[in-house]
């Protein structure tokens, strides 16, 4: 019954649309000389409407509607009076219009009968969101989850489920918010802190910021072997220009990974890239004692080690200020550590110590990290 009603309605609408186009095409245009008379008539009508409105004979809204319609007709009549189309050209236009009006419905109906589904009822958004989740798109599922969490903001499990989805959609700031809520409600653990740090870093364009670094440290406090935290902390060292230290961190991680871990491939790739940058042959991984020693290192000790490396680089640049790459590493290191004032001071010293194009290069590099000299 529904398909039959659909086809009747479709046929009626198609016929109405065709007639709306065909009727004007089949009419003969009035003589151009009559256009001037029409213009005068419509102008008189406009004046009459204005007089009626002024004396209250018709309401203001009705007067405005009438004036709009008369103005439309006046403009058309004026255009007709000034146009002198050739009869042959008008015939061609009408012929083309007739063909288009006849062909388009036939083609569209033929396609719809082949690929369409006239018996399928309409489905508003609310109904799509209420249907079986296995039949929903990712966007619909996310919308459902967001609506649920808007009504139930203390649902820790909901935030924990939504966090990874936001990451896949590259909504990194939303992912970080989701993980913060999950940690606030369900407590801190290695997986949640690592996921939070990853989202924060992704939102910062891949930079392991001080906030991301702190999240990874909290993850390792729960589980010293948490692979994501260890991998990205080593990535932070690489961002600071400490390629050798980063490579060593990845090698230690590789030695500690279970044989069936999915982290082997990204770790191997990171090690290979670091060794290529260092120009060194592949090195053997650390022995069991080295791995155990690294695992036992406290977050405070690791932080102290990082601070010491940055301080050492700073001292070297004071002695040799004409080192563009060194200044870039130092500025990035201070940004990663969250020491914005030190980063600005380092930029100022770099500009004072470098010459020529190197000044522009270090300024552009610092600007990408959001560091500018005061003043």
Properties at a glance:
76% helix, mainly alpha, Serine Threonine Protein Phosphatase 5, Tetratricopeptide repeat, Cyt_c_biogenesis_CcmI, elongated
Explain this structure.
With 375 residues, the chain is mainly α. Helix 1 packs antiparallel against helix 4 and helix 7 packs antiparallel against helix 8. The longest helix is centred in the N-terminal third of the chain and has 29 residues. About 8% of the residues have low confidence. It is found in: Cell envelope. This is Cytochrome c-type biogenesis protein CcmH. One of its GO terms (biological process) is cytochrome complex assembly. InterPro entries: C-type_cytochrome_biogenesis, Cyt_c_biogenesis_CcmI, TPR-like_helical_dom_sf, TPR_CcmH_CycH, TPR_rpt.
**Helical proportion, percent range:** over 70%
Note the beta-strand portion: under 5%
Mean pLDDT: 74
The 3D shape can be described as elongated
Secondary-structure-based class equals mainly alpha
In the residues, how many domains can be counted? 4
Instruction: Output the number of helix runs.
Output: 18
